[in-house]
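Whiteboard transcription, Tuesday session. T.W. wrote the C-alpha cells on the left side:
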C-alpha cells in the first residue's frame, strides 16, 4: 500500500502546474490581442469618429464598425485595401438621382455633390440645357432633373435642305421650333413619334393631289388616199393639205415637291376639228416607150451645142434621176430634176405640192423654168455640163 499523504501532495502539485500553464496562455493571448489592435479615423458622410479595430482590410473594418456599404457607395481607400494603424477611411454614400435625359427617364446613382458635377460625370457638354441651376446641391434635390442635349439635324423640306441646332426631344417639337407646318398629305421620312438624336436627317415631301392643269393639245390629222387614173402609176399628189386639230384637256395632277408624278383626265373639249390630208395615188399604166430615131445632126450646129429646148428637160431628168419624176431617195433631193426643198419652195413649187416628187413632171418643169431664170443652168452643174448646156 502506498503512502496516502504522498499521493495527495503529487495531485496538488500537478493541479497548480496546469493552472499556471492556462493562465500564462491567457495572458500571452491577451498581450497578442492588444498588440494587434488598430486605431482608425472613420468619416461617413462628413461625420468623423475614431474606432478601435482589429480588422485587416477596409471592408472588414467597416463591417466590424457596423457601417454597411451600398453597391455604389464610394470608399477611400478601396474596399480591399489593407489598413494600417492610424489610417483614415472615408465613406461617401451614393444618392439615387431621378434623371430625364433627352426624354428618357432613369435612376442614376452618384456620389458627386452638385448638378454641374453630375453633368460632368455623365460626360454631357456644357451646352446641355438643365432644369436646375448647375450649382444646386444634389442632397437638396427631391424631384427629377431634366437634361436636354444639343443636336445637329438636317431638314429637307420640299427638296431644299438646311441644318439646325436644337435641344428638341421629339420630332413634333423640332418641326414647331423650325416653323414647319405639315400639310394633310405631306410625307415624313420618319415616324412622328421619333426621338431627335444628333445627326438625324428628316425629309418632308410636300404633296398636292387637288391641283388641276389645263393643256392645249394637237389632234393629228388623218391621211386619206384616193386612186387617180389620171396620174401615172406610183405617182402621189396631195390635193388637200392636212391640218392638225386642237383640243383642251383638263387633268387632276399629283405633285410631289412641285413636280408632277401622275395625272388623271377630268374633261376634254375639241376646239378645232382636224382637216384630213387628201392624197391622189396614180393608177395609170406607164406608156410603152417608142423607139427613138437617132437625132440628125443639124447643119451648122457645132458639137456640144445645147440640145433643142423641147427635149432638154427630159434629157436633164434622165441624167439627174434616171428619168424618175417621183423619186425620193432620202438624200435631200426630190423628183426628176432633183430639187432641194428650199429651191423648190423658192421657185414657187409649193403651189403644186409640198415636195417636188409629189408634183407632176409638167409642174416640175414649170418650176424648173422659174429656177433657171434666176440662175441659169448652174442649178444643175454636173448634168448641164454633160449635156453641153453650160
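and on the right, the sequence the group agreed on:
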Amino acid at each position: 500500500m502506498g503512502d496516502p499523504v504522498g499521493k495527495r501532495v503529487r495531485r496538488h502539485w500537478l493541479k497548480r502546474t496546469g493552472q499556471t500553464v492556462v493562465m500564462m496562455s491567457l495572458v500571452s493571448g491577451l498581450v497578442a490581442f492588444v498588440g494587434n489592435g488598430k486605431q482608425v479615423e472613420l468619416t461617413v458622410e462628413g461625420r468623423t469618429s475614431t474606432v478601435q479595430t482589429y480588422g485587416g482590410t477596409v471592408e472588414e473594418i467597416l463591417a466590424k464598425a457596423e457601417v454597411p456599404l451600398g453597391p455604389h457607395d464610394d470608399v477611400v481607400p478601396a474596399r480591399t485595401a489593407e489598413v494600417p494603424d492610424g489610417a483614415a477611411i472615408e465613406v461617401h454614400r451614393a444618392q439615387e438621382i431621378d434623371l430625364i435625359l433627352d426624354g428618357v427617364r432613369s435612376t442614376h446613382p452618384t456620389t458627386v455633390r452638385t448638378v454641374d458635377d453630375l453633368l460632368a460625370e455623365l460626360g454631357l457638354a456644357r451646352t446641355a440645357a438643365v432644369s436646375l441651376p448647375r450649382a444646386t446641391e444634389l442632397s437638396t434635390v427631391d424631384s427629377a432633373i431634366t437634361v436636354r442635349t444639343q443636336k445637329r439635324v438636317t431638314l429637307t423640306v420640299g427638296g431644299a435642305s438646311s441644318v439646325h441646332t436644337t435641344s428638341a426631344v421629339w420630332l413634333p417639337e423640332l418641326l414647331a421650333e423650325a416653323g414647319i407646318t405639315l400639310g394633310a398629305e405631306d410625307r415624313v421620312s420618319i415616324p412622328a413619334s421619333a426621338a431627335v438624336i444628333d445627326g438625324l436627317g428628316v425629309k418632308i415631301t410636300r404633296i398636292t393631289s387637288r391641283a388641276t392643269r389645263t393643256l392645249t393639245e394637237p389632234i393629228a390629222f388623218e391621211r386619206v388616199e384616193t386612186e387617180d387614173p389620171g396620174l401615172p402609176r406610183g405617182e402621189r399628189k396631195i390635193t388637200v393639205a392636212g391640218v392638225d386639230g386642237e383640243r383642251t384637256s383638263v387633268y387632276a395632277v399629283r405633285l410631289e415637291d412641285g413636280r408632277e408624278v401622275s395625272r388623271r383626265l377630268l374633261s376634254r373639249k375639241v376646239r378645232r376639228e382636224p382637216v384630213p390630208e387628201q392624197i391622189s395615188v396614180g393608177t395609170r399604166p406607164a406608156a410603152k416607150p417608142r423607139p427613138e430615131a437617132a437625132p440628125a445632126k443639124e447643119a451648122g450646129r457645132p458639137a456640144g451645142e445645147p440640145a433643142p429646148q423641147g427635149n432638154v428637160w427630159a434629157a436633164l431628168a434622165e441624167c439627174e434621176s434616171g428619168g424618175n419624176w417621183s423619186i425620193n431617195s432620202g438624200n435631200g433631193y426630190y423628183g426628176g430634176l432633183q430639187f432641194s426643198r428650199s429651191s423648190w419652195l423658192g421657185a414657187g413649187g409649193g403651189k403644186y405640192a409640198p415636195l417636188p416628187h409629189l408634183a407632176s413632171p409638167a409642174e416640175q418643169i414649170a418650176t424648173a423654168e422659174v429656177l433657171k431664170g434666176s440662175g441659169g443652168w448652174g442649178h444643175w452643174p454636173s448634168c448641164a455640163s454633160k449635156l453641153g448646156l453650160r
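Someone added at the bottom: Confidence is low (pLDDT under 50) at residues 4-35, 291-310.
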